[in-house]
Amino acid sequence: MAGVVSRRGLLGGAALVGVGALAGVVQGAGTAVAEAPLDTPFTPVSAPHLLQAEQMVQYQRLLAAGHLPDGLVGHWPLDGTAADRSGYEHPVTLGSGATWTTLRAGGELSLDGTSGAYAATGSVLDTTAPFTVSAWVRLSDAASLSTMYTAVSQDGSMVSRFLLQYDDAAGTWAFKVRSADQSTKVSALAANPATLGLWTHLAGVWDGAQIHLYVNGTLEGSADSTLSWAATEGFNIGRAKWNSAPANRFNGAIDDVRAYGRALTADEVAVISGRTARANNVYLIGSPSSVTWGTPDDPTTWIAHARCSSFLTRVLKHTYGWATDDYFTQYFQDTIPEAADYRKAFADGTAGPHFRRIRKVTDLRPGDLIAIDYNGQVADNTGHIVMVREVKGTFTGTADFTGETQYAVEIIDCTSDPHGVYGLSNYPAYPDSRMVSNVTGENFQGVGIGHMMFYASDATGEFSRYRWSVNTSKTTAENLTVTDRPIAAARVV
Ligand SMILES: [Ca+2]
Hints:
Shape: elongated
CATH topology of the largest domain: Jelly Rolls
CATH class of the largest domain: Mainly Beta
Number of strands: 27
Bound molecules: calcium ion
CATH architecture of the largest domain: Sandwich
Number of domains: 2
Distance between the termini: 34 Å
C-alpha cells in the first residue's frame, strides 16, 4: 500500500488491508505509519456486521488522518522518521537542533530555535504552478512572540519563494510569497493572534492569482499575487532563507508537513486539517442518530453521528434484513434500544432469535456485543455497549482483584472520549484510534477502535467487572462490578 496519510499515527495502514471494500481508497497512496498495536490485518469472516462497523471506523480514521492523496508531491508525517510518504522520495535531513518527540500520538519534530533547528531536502514543489503547503505547528512555550519563525519554505538562491510562518510584526500566522530578488512580498494573515503552546493547522495555497492562508481548516486571509518563479534551492521545515542565508529558525514543534502540486479547495483543506473528521464523526446525545456508509473513493461521504447504542443498532440494521424497526420494537420495545435495554434483553434471553447470550468472557468472539447497565448512576445515559474486535488475552499487574481474571478486549464503539490516557504507563500497548494527546479538544470522538478491560469470576467464568481502559485506576474499578453495573454479552446470529 502506498501514500495513505498518517497524521499523528492515527491511521493503522495495514488494518485497512483486511477490508476489501477499502482497497480503492488506499490504492496509489504511500505506506502509512501506525501505532503497532493497531497495525494488524483484520478480516472478519463470520461477522458481517463487524465488517460494516470496521469499514465505518476505518473511513473515519482516514478522515482523522486527513487522507487526501490527489496531487500530493511531498508528505512528511514526522512520526519519528524523516521519510517522505508521498512516494516521491524526498526524505529530510535533520539539523542538530531538531529532535523527535511524542507530544502526541505518532510523534512530531521538535525544533529548538538554534541555527540547527531545521529539516531540509531538495526542492519539492514546482513553484511556477499552483501549489499548497500545510503543517501542524506549535510554538514552544519558551518561544518569543517578537521573533519570526518559519515552519515551511522553499528557497531560491537569495530568498524563500514562499513562507508558512509566524510573523512577529503581525503577531500571528502568515502565508507569504516573495519575488526572487526579495524586493516584493505579499502576505495573507491569520485573523487572530497566535498563542504559544497551541497546536494549529496551517495551509498556504497559491492558485496562480491569489494566495490563501487557512488556519485549522478555515480560510482566514487572502491576497492577490501572480508572482511566479522556480525556487530550486531546497525545501525546508523549520527555517527560511533571507539575504542568501538561513533565517527564521522555528522554536517549537512541527508535524505532518505536506506539499501538493495543485491549489487545494476549501473543502480539501478542511479534510487535511481534520476539520471534516470532527464534523463527520460525532458522539451525539439528544438528537436523532445518522450513520451513512459512503462511497469507497470518498471518505468525506462516511458519516457517523450517533451514541453507543444507536451506532451499533444502525450497524445491525445496515447489515441484516432481519434487523428492522419491527424486530427491535418487538424484542426491545424501541426502534433504537438504549444500552441498558440491550443489557437487560441479553441477560433475560428476550432479545429474540438473532441474539444468543454469551456468559463467559473467554467465549467472546469478534462481533459479539457487550452491554453495560449504569443502573441509573449516570444522568442522561443508561449504559454503554461495545462490539468485540478481538480478545487480546489475560492481563495482570494492574488493578488485579482476588478471584477474578482480567482480559484486555479490543473493541469498536462510539464514545465521547477515547479509552485510556495518552502516554500513561502501558496505554501504548492498548491504544485508542481516537486518541491524539492529553490536550483538551485534540482527541477525536465518535466511532473508533479502543481497548477495555473485562474481568471474569474465576469460579464461574462469567463477567465480574470492567475497567474503561488499561489506565483506569483500581479504586475506580472497585465500583465497576456487575453488582453496581450489570454486564451482559450476546452473539449476533
Ligand atoms: Ca507525526
